[in-house]
Design a protein that fits this description.
Blueprint: H1 5-11, H2 15-34, H3 38-44, H4 49-77, H5 79-100, H6 104-114, H7 117-129, H8 137-151, H9 155-165, H10 167-192, H11 197-206, H12 211-216, H13 218-227, H14 229-259, H15 269-289, H16 295-314, H17 327-354, H18 360-375, H19 377-388, H20 392-410, H21 420-427
Amino acid sequence: MKQHPMLQAFRDLRGNTRICVWTEPLWGIPYTLFIPYASVYMRALGLSDVQVGLVASFYLFARAVTSAMSGAVTDKLGRKRCTFLFDAVAWSLPCLLWALAQNVWWFYAAALFNGFMQITDNSWTCLLVEDADKRKITNIYNWIYVTGQLSVFFAPLAGLLVGQLTIIPALRLLYGFSFISMTAKFILLYRYCDETEVGKVRLRETKGQSLFSILSEYRTLIPRFFRSGDMLLATAISVPLLASNMVADAFFGIYTTERLGIPDSALSFFPIIRSAIILCSIFIVQPRIVRFGFKGPMLVGALLFIAGHLTLILVPTLGLPLAGGLFAPILYTVLHACAFGLVMPRKDTIVALNLDPGERARMTSILTVTMLSVTIPFGYIAGYLSEINRNLPFFLNIVLFAVTFAIVLTSRKLKKGGSLEAREGEAG
C-alpha cells in the first residue's frame, strides 16, 4: 500500500529541518493558547481600539527596522547562534512583559522586543530550508503548518482557564507558561541544530567585517531585488496577505465579543475549527490539487477569503436565529481556513523558490522590509475604522483580498501553471 506523501515527507525529514519541525509545538502550543485573546486582554486592561491598532502598527514598524539588519546579523552571527539569541529577545522577554502588563506602554515595550522576531524568522528559515532538498520545500512548509495546527487543539484549555479566572488573570498565567515552553524550544534548537553549509560560507566571508560594512553591501543587492520580476511578484502577493492577517488577528476577537456578544471563553474554539480544516486541506486536498500549480488554487482561495469576511459582516444583519450568534463567526472561520490552506503554502513556496540561494538571508531581509514598510499603516487604519464601525476593518480586508486576486489573475509568471513539485525541481 502506497504511503501518504505527507507521511513519507515526515519520515524523510533530516538534519536541521527535522529538529525545526519537531520542536515547533513548543512554540506553537503556547502561542495558540494566548493569541485568540491577545486583543481582548488589551481591551480588558483599558486600551482603546485605536491603541490596539497602534500597538499592531508599532510592532510592524519594529519588525521593519530589525528586518533591515536581519540578513547581515544572520550572516555575521551564523544561523544557529542568531536564532537562539533573538528568539529569546523576541519571544521570551515579550512573554514576561505581556504577563506583567499594566497599561499601553507595556504593550509598546513588548511590541518593540517582539519586533526582533524578524531577525530570528530570517535565521530560522535558513536553518529550516538551506540544507533541505529543494524538491521537498512545499511539504516542509506543509509540516510546519501541520505542527502549528495540531497545537491549536490545546486551545480549549485556554477557554476553560478564561472561563474560570476571567480574562486578565488567565492571560497572565498563559503568558507565563509561554515563557517557559518557548524558552525550552530555543534551547533544544540550539543544542541539536548545526550551522548550515551556506551559513558556514557566510561566516567565513563576513569574518573581520563590521556589521556596518556588511549592511553597506545592500547597496548592490537592493537594485537587484527591485529589478527581479520574481521578487516583485512575491512581494506584491505577500503584502496584502500580511496586512489582512494582522487586521484579522487584531480585531476578530474584539468584533465577536463586543459586536456579536460571544463570551470571551468561546474564542478558543474558533482556532480548533480552523485548524481541523487546514489539516484536512494539507492531508487530503493538497495532494489532489498539486497538479494545478499556483494560479488556480490561489484565485479560489482569495475568493473564499472574501466570502468569509462578507459572511461575518452580513449574516448578523439578517436577524436569523442561528446558534445564538455563533453561525457567522463559525462560517467565517470555515471559509477562512479553506482559503488559508489554498493560498498560504503556495505564497510561501513562491517566496522560497524565488530567493537567490546564495543570498537567501539578505534577500529575505530586503523582501521583509519592503513588505512591512507598506503594511505598517494598516494597524492604525483598522483601529480607526473599528472605532467608527466594528464592520469596517473587515471591509478593509475584503479590499486587500481583492488586490491579491487581481495580482494573481494578471500575473504572467503564474500562467504557465505546472505542479509545485515541478517548479521546485527546476529551482533545485
